[in-house]
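debug: dumping io for the single-chain case to check the tokenizer round-trip. Nothing else runs in this session.
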Amino acid sequence: MQRPNMALTALVGFSMYTLATMLTAEQSLLAFGRELMSRPDTAQVVIDLYLMAALACVWMYRDARARGRSVGSVLPYLLLTAVFVSIGPLLYIVVNRGRDE
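debug: decoded output
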């Protein structure tokens, strides 16, 4: 039970932080991403982050299939992961927390 509670805390906290940041940002999310990728030092961090996101997507897909669910059931989480990285897997853990038992 501890894992989902930690995931819920992280999901709520990080989602609120992300929302506040996006509301006060002076540039679009795409412009911000392009700027990060324009320098090798920040590009390395972004590439590393998206490699971890890809691994999380593989885990969510395999977990959904092991639970007998279709790819469509995990698609919203994959899309959230593609845009906001950690929000997709955190939400997946929170939503599926009681289904292990």
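debug: round-trip ok. Residues 2-100 form one domain.
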